[in-house]
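Team,

Forwarding the record for the chain on the shared tracking sheet. I've put the sequence and predicted structure together so nobody has to dig through attachments.
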Amino acid sequence: MQVMTGAARKAGRRLARDFNEVEHLQVSKKGPADFVTNADQKAEQIVFEELSKARPGYGFLMEERGVVEGTDKSHRWIVDPLDGTLNFMHAQPHFAVSIALEREGELVAGVVYNPATDELYHAEKGRGCYVNDRRLRVSERRKFSEAVIATGMPFFGKKGHATFLKELHQIMPHCAGIRRYGAASLDLAGVAAGRFDGFWERGLGAWDVAAGIVLVREAGGQAGSIEQTGDVLETGNICAGNETMMDELRTRLAKAAG
């Protein structure tokens, strides 16, 4: 965990410096797109170097460079160096470094760090979930009509707009509110912290959700595939919450699909 949090904080410091530049670039004609791409790659390089130095045999699954095979076939890091890229590009302080550790195919540790707020979410299997030094628990809310649900919408060029609108129609009228912040790792951290009662989204990458899954589970919640079949890291179709919220979300999402 020290290795993971150290790498996340180091990459986060770099992103925080770059974020200050983005705020200036955002109002220029050129815009920040190329700058943000470089910031993303630099953050990933920092995480890669820090984790490789500490655990030289471990493999990687990273958003930018993809699969990196390691000599230790039982361990793999799953990394998103900048989750919430569009937020970062538009000078919105809601983005994160996400790092998970997979051992023998099982997620065993996760870190999600928002440099803008200095909130470091971390969890290890069997040891609970924390933000900085505070223990977290998922919401105990049982009435869906009182629940605040986080989600992610398909962005420009991504499939699934019609499906999302059907799902939204099934969920939005029956809960207290829907929130869309644009960073799945932080949405899952929000579920772990009880800020959101539930979360669902389709078509995510393993790097978007791996660390957040560990956070939710160690905070006493559930996180898994919407369809209850297949590996959520492969399908990318995820929902999360306490047991009641998971059942309600899956039921309503199945209605949308039917």
